[in-house]
Design a protein that fits this description.
Blueprint lengths: L20 H28 L26 E17 L11 E16 L8 E3 L5 E4 L5 E2 L3 E2 L5 E7 L1 H9 L5 H17 L2 H19 L3 E4 L2
Parallel strand pairs: 4-8
Antiparallel strand pairs: 1-2, 2-5, 2-6, 2-7, 3-4
Amino acid sequence: MTTNETSTARPVSAPPPAPDRKNSLMKGIALLVLGALVALAGVTAANAFGLNPFQSRQIDRSQPTLLKSIQNVSRFQAAVGNFEKVIDIEDDIAGVPAIIAGRRTLFVAAGTVNAYVDLSGLTDKDLELSQDGKTATVRLPESQLEKPNLDFDRSHIYDQNRGIFDLIADGFEAPDQAKLYKLAETKFAAAAAESELRKQATENTKAFLTSLCGRLGLQVTFRD
């Protein structure tokens, strides 16, 4: 005789819902942003009243400037030439389009060149005084030009077109502008030498000495 037993299965309950991690993450980010905004607002308000504890400052720890020597100069600075030039330089790579590699630079250069007469070169042969002591004859040394002085505040790159490779290279290393300044000095020196700057310096020196000696009752003439 067979007995049929009926087993009753227990229902399986569903697991409790997991917390919404996305919502928790968003709440955390929102709190972080809110905290940063509050901190920024606090620093801004403190800075307005001069109470910002995070104010930056610069400390100069340089050693005292040392005067190494003094050079005696007997120059009369007689004239100053003001120069300005737009330098147009193009670096081209043969066979490569300019859009790929190469650059063209427009550099505005400004500066001065001083012209002077070195009076320390005067000798007894260059000065002749009349017997009555009222007239002097002077032979001036030739005027000279100093090295050009570039004005770094006024000199700058006005425009520059670069190829793709040059743009990428400049992102890793700043282009060297020393060559542009050196080229500007060379061109200023050449322009000053071709100008009337030295002649004007000689004339100004003569006028200065004539006026100075005239106040002392001495008449001055100049010879070559």
